[in-house]
Amino acid sequence: MQSLNIKKGVEMTIDSITLTNMLGQQVKTWTVSDQNGIITVPTDQIASGNYIVSMVTNYGAQSRKVIIQ
Asked: 20 CB contacts (<8 Å, ≥6 apart)?
């Protein structure tokens, strides 16, 4: 099973994680309830390619580019 692991800081809480393709289309959104140190989101149903992962946190929104293979 493929997955994306997101390591967060102790004081950070993540409300949601959104995966967007390079055309700006929202592919998947996960609501985060488990606030452990590493959050794992499954990517086995996501096509290979370049994506933007956006997270809404208590510190604001953060985005990172990822490659899913």
From this structure: 26, 27, 51, 52, 54
The total domain count for the chain is 1
CA-to-CA dists, residue 65 to 10, 21, 33, 34, angstroms: 23, 10, 23, 23
Higher-pLDDT residue of 1 and 7 is: 7
pTM: predicted TM-score of the whole model, two decimal places = 0.84
CA 40 to CA 11: how far, in whole Å?
18
- Give the whole-angstrom CA distance, residue 22 versus residue 60: 22
Domain holding 44: CATH number? 2.60.40
Query: How far is it, in rounded angstroms, from Cα 30 to Cα 14?
Result: 10
